[in-house]
Amino acid sequence: RPSVQPSAEVLAMFVRIVRPQINPGQAQEAAKRWESFMAPRAKANPNFQRGYMAVNADGTSVVAVTLWDQLPDEERTKQIQKEIAEQMEGLMTGPPSTEDFEVIGQI
């Protein structure tokens, strides 16, 4: 748990940021595969709020951001990561990095 406590107005919320390493020029295909694979799985989890995949200006880097009331358990996360890696075969140059955050403020 973070040492900074959320303000009283902030409901418990978590953010997961995944940075896949993709081949240049593959951002649109990565987003298509991510959306197709993740949408039904995420929406089946009652703690899921919303998800986005974004690309930088030159299309060389993507990031997947998901918002949660509570993060999925570690075992389930590892299983999903393995499955999505299979879906992204041929697009990724290496394993993604993943970071989880607890929201402590909002505007």
Q: Over all CA atoms, what is the radius of gyration?
A: 15 Å
Q: What low-confidence regions span 5 or more consecutive residues with pLDDT below 50?
A: none
The number of helical runs is 2
Largest sheet, in brief, is: 4 strands, antiparallel
Query: Could you tell me the strand content as a percent range?
Result: 25-35%
Span between N and C termini?
Answer: 22 Å
Average predicted confidence as pLDDT: 90
Identify the overall geometry: globular
Oligomer: single chain
Output the helix-strand order: EHEEHE
DSSP, total strands: 4
Main sheet strand line-up: 2-3-1-4
Fraction of residues in helix: 25-40%
Structural class: alpha+beta
Note down, in words, how this protein is organized.
Helices cover 29% and strands 33% of the residues. It has 107 residues and is α+β, with helices and mostly antiparallel strands. It has a 4-stranded antiparallel sheet with strand order 2-3-1-4, with helices on one face. A hairpin with a 6-residue loop joins strand 2 (48-55) and strand 3. It is globular. The two termini are 22 Å apart.
